[in-house]
Request: fold
Amino acid sequence: MSGRAQLMWDDAVTGYDFGDTHPMDPVRLALTMGLVRAFGLDGAVDLRSAKAVGDSTLRLVHRQDYVAAVRAASENPRAADQDYGLGTVDDPAFAGMHEASALIAGLSIGAAEAVWRGETEHAVNFTGGLHHAMPGSAAGFCVYNDPALAIARLLELGAERVAYVDVDVHHGDGVQAAFWEDPRVLTISLHEHPRTLFPQTGWPEETGAGAGEGSAVNVALPAGTGDAGWLRAFHAVVPELLADFRPQVLVTQHGADTHFEDPLAHLAVSLDAQRAVMESCHRLAHEHADGRWVALGGGGYAVVDVVPRSWTHLVGIAAHAPVDPESVVPPSWRDLVYARTRQLGPGRMTDGRTPSWQAWEDGYDPADRLDQAVLASRKAAFPLRGLLT
Reply:
């Protein structure tokens, strides 16, 4: 197995562009790759591209009629069929939409294949993590569900247990839906409570069905949750589940929109806490999945101040070349930021926080809203897996 992580990248991913007024500005991808290069991390990884995924692989998750609708909208955006979630405010149709979406999915599948085949232990595709797309519709800025496709490809290759951990501020609803009845896939999502945020799913009681009952776990966090609560919730749920499930591969989604500067949500998490969870996912992959780790991006709409720094930390951690949070951001990258956005980029790779949390095993407060959320998730899902709450 190669000692170097793989970083999946193709400049064409910036063609995933919903337009100038849409919050999901592809400049966030270009700036992230620029920051990765500014820190020299592109020399610490094997930089790889992949082919856009074909229809037969898309059908592992998506219906053929939906794929056909995406192709049609891609060729003629004005004729997009809104019955498939295309041409909407959230998912405007644009020329080349199918090609750009299929490329991002191909990069995530390429990452999964490389890890499964032993070419590398860790593979990162920060352009992926588009977790809201459903089998028959686009949703939440997502056209093809690359995390679900990567997992489905792992199953096709022979994996028997794949764990998916999603720490985006929004519920990982599309991935959960894809494997709702499949006991081979454990989906864990930590997200803002559905009462206050799209997609209004991800309640603790959503635990899977049929043979997959107990294979979906949801931690619905109160709006305003900050570093201590977010980290407490993660460590109160994720490590125990992974230790029990013993995944052969760990797939994680690292949406940066939990950050306190994100304009579309209401959590108050720092860059430093996001980095701490990335480090935990890295460690958990080594402890429970023989080091096999596929790390994806996701949401994140503070496209200058937050997303590039967050995902550069992710690349560094996966490459075993972590960026010191106290590092000064290279001036060359700040020049790039100004040239592309006319904004001033951040000066350091930290928000100046020192993340800490109280372990669940030390006791909980039944009157605390965060602890109520954690306990609700544990009560709903843990007994179905034979675990104590």
